[in-house]
Amino acid sequence: MSKFKTVYTCKNCGYTSYQWVGQCPGCNEWNSFVEDVISAKESKPGTTPLKSPCKLVKLSEVSSDPLRRISSGIEEFDRVLGGGFVPGQVVLLAGEPGIGKSTILTEISKNLKCLNILYVCGEESIDQVKVRAVRMNYAAENMLMLSETNVDAIVLAIEQNKNIGLVIIDSVQTLSSDELLGSPGSLVQVRGCTQMLTNVAKENGIPMVLVGHVTKEGVVAGPKVLEHIVDTVLYLEGDSQHLFRILRTNKNRFGPVSEVGIFEMEEGGIKEVKNPSDMFLKQRMANSAGSCVTVVMEGYRPLLFEIQALTVKTSFGYPRRTASGFSNTRLQVLVAILERRAGLNLGSLDVYLSVAGGFKINEYAADLAVCLAITSSVKDCPVKEGVAAFGECGLNGEIRRVTQQDKRSKEAVKLGYGEVISSDNTKNILEAVSKSISR
Ligand code: TYD
Ligand code: MG
């Protein structure tokens, strides 16, 4: 009998089946099954005797000293990690191609002058990495380059060079091992290589960052299944039209998961943004109709955004409702609420909505600001200076509580928006309109 069996694994959730299926029974994703190989060695439970008895450890006797952290030199990156890298930690940095993963890792190497960094480039040539370093004004004296895709050679290099402080693998999808079946980039190869690298990082106590590409559907190409092998999964997000990038944690064995870090792509590298609200509100025009400031929670952090609305007479029989950075369906609901509960006549108007700066808001907390921006545009009267609004709008026109209202209010006041409209002081949309729009 063959030593291996072919199975099919869902690259979205890891569900396995002996037959190919179109839709995954685990996560309902379509066309997500790829061929995978598992060991066919059958063992009957209880038949393999253990060589030595298991040793039990009392949890109370385990040291509870705080973890030793190695700062990445970038405050925003450290915060997302929970304070910095932990020795032996394996971080998967995932993101779409071209989003800035290699750039952010070069920036970290530049900051960690006292550590030797092993940079394994499987994707780019050493010359290309050099060009990036020069562009970022980085002499790269602490960067040891290895142009290799064979994971066995990488493991050997890590074991032989004891002076390495951080390993960067760019990217994990290019790796392969002779000991594993399948072609480079296949599920078996990527998973096996990640496991081998994780083992060597843990044995040597070296933190390691693996770069993983994400496909359009948001799946770490092929192996979403990698996520359970590594300690921390970070996603770098953003769009090519805008310069800011958001770093989110999806999983973290050594810190919080809801933290976000905000960065800006610049000509000479990627820079952290210490005051993101300032950045998003910087270009706001004073006293313009159709604009309202809201406070959105990104992880544990309140951020201020400007919501812009434009209403124009429709040229067709069917008025358009178009949103960018906000859900179109939610916009339609809010338009209906405004018509019925605030007496606004939007039947003959096109409504365009945008979150200034290109950010995507997924929270209902922005409802109230969306309603006020639309009302302000229809009435052609600006929302009063110094007003920030947040709250979910119910179908009856009531304003509902959202999470962390105090934190949001404090942030708004801190940034000069002293008059906060929320469910704490306002019952319904009509009241919010009369408080914030003078006409
Ligand atoms: P890169 O880090 O190579 O992306 P990834 O590794 O995620 O595929 O970044 C690619 C983009 O970043 C590229 O379009 C150029 C831009 N960039 C800058 O804007 N400034 C810089 O200093 C560098 C090095 C790149
Ligand atoms: Mg890259």
Automatic annotation (TrEMBL):
Annotated region described as Lon-protease-like, given as residue ranges: 350-439
InterPro entries the UniProt entry points to: AAA+_ATPase, DNA_repair_RadA, P-loop_NTPase, RecA_ATP-bd, Ribosomal_Su5_D2-typ_SF, Ribsml_uS5_D2-typ_fold_subgr, Rubredoxin_2
Organism domain of life: Bacteria
A GO BP entry: recombinational repair
Motif segment (RadA KNRFG motif): 251-255
Residue stretches making up the RecA family profile domain: 66-214
Keywords noted in UniProt: ATP-binding, DNA damage, DNA repair, DNA-binding, Hydrolase, Metal-binding, Nucleotide-binding, Stress response, Zinc, Zinc-finger
Matches recorded under PANTHER family: DNA REPAIR PROTEIN RADA (PTHR32472), DNA REPAIR PROTEIN RADA-LIKE PROTEIN (PTHR32472:SF10)
Domain notes: The middle region has homology to RecA with ATPase motifs including the RadA KNRFG motif, while the C-terminus is homologous to Lon protease.
Role of this protein: DNA-dependent ATPase involved in processing of recombination intermediates, plays a role in repairing DNA breaks. Stimulates the branch migration of RecA-mediated strand transfer reactions, allowing the 3' invading strand to extend heteroduplex DNA faster. Binds ssDNA in the presence of ADP but not other nucleotides, has ATPase activity that is stimulated by ssDNA and various branched DNA structures, but inhibited by SSB. Does not have RecA's homology-searching function.
Family from the record: Belongs to the RecA family. RadA subfamily.
HAMAP family reported for this sequence: RadA_bact
Protein name: DNA repair protein RadA
